[in-house]
């Protein structure tokens, strides 16, 4: 089965493509618009792989997507393409509405038109898998149970509202047109190739450059952390064995406060790359003003996926974080390339 992966040069998309091609000889068509967070360097190890086809373009370009679906006889679409950074969505939400909502709508329509014309067997096997977020369930109190698939959507940020809207469109295309969709709502991901605007890679970058490690408010907000390769293995499983029309939550059962995350990170860095002055990276932690509408806690109940598809996360938070730190220490050039002009503008806007 040839798959079309959208947002394939982004963080989770590129990890997914690399993992997929590591385990399969089938073709992958990678589509990415290469906006600020998409980076072709993430896929550079595939440059000699004849099963990989990269196309620069938008999920909203119906002509292009329709042409690709037909040309490569695509059997499944995995939609990672999205604007994903909450802080950016607070500064300016237009791109989130356009990519996450209108883009998904256009992708669904391209898929529906292609799928309608397929022969019976191919039509039955086709899948549209939509990758979404735990943030659509909104903020939990510390004593609430983790979010499960039947919990109501209560998004609070422009980002999470745009993802919630896209999830509703995907659901409607199944209910109305019977397009064979699957939706995956995952916890906060971390791992190789994550753009250093998110908490973990930003903290690694700043730690190594002797800069403050900015923690919003008191750092007591809780996120549920999932190593990106565990997310990729869950998506594979859901794509192959998931029930059409269903939603699956993916999480690692690793709830941590932001302060715990950064302190653990500092301890790993102290061990792997001790500072020349003998001090700890923890000294660089700096409490800064809070994010507007900052959600207190996200937590994911992944028991449906574990029960029905026998999936388990392989990494603990400590093993996953250690792998992540090692990857960043080993990929200084990658980091140097992504923190060019636009990134500096963002850091100035957000942290000055
Ligand atoms: P982030 O990585 O942006 O993911 P999300 O907002 O999707 O959960 O942020 C993770 C948590 O870390 C969130 O509670 C905000 C906090 N945070 C900081 O304290 N400082 C920072 O510089 C950033 C980027 C995030």
Automatic annotation (TrEMBL):
Protein keywords: Lyase, NAD
**From which residue to which does the signal peptide run?**
none
A GO MF annotation of the entry reads: dTDP-glucose 4,6-dehydratase activity
Does RNA-binding appear among the keywords? no
Keyword NAD present in the record's keywords: the answer is yes
Q: What class of enzyme is it?
A: lyase
* Domain NAD(P)-binding intervals: 4-324
Q: Which cofactor does it need?
A: NAD(+)
Matching InterPro entries: dTDP_Gluc_deHydtase, NAD(P)-bd_dom, NAD(P)-bd_dom_sf
Q: Which Pfam families match?
A: GDP_Man_Dehyd
Which spans does this entry mark as compositional bias, Polar residues?
A: 140-150
Q: Where do the record's region annotations for Disordered lie?
A: 140-160
* Reaction catalysis annotation: dTDP-alpha-D-glucose = dTDP-4-dehydro-6-deoxy-alpha-D-glucose + H2O
Biological process (GO), any one = nucleotide-sugar metabolic process
- EC number(s) given by UniProt: 4.2.1.46
Q: What superkingdom heads the lineage?
A: Bacteria
Family per similarity comment? Belongs to the NAD(P)-dependent epimerase/dehydratase family. dTDP-glucose dehydratase subfamily.
What's the protein called, per UniProt? dTDP-glucose 4,6-dehydratase
Specify the species: Candidatus Methylopumilus universalis
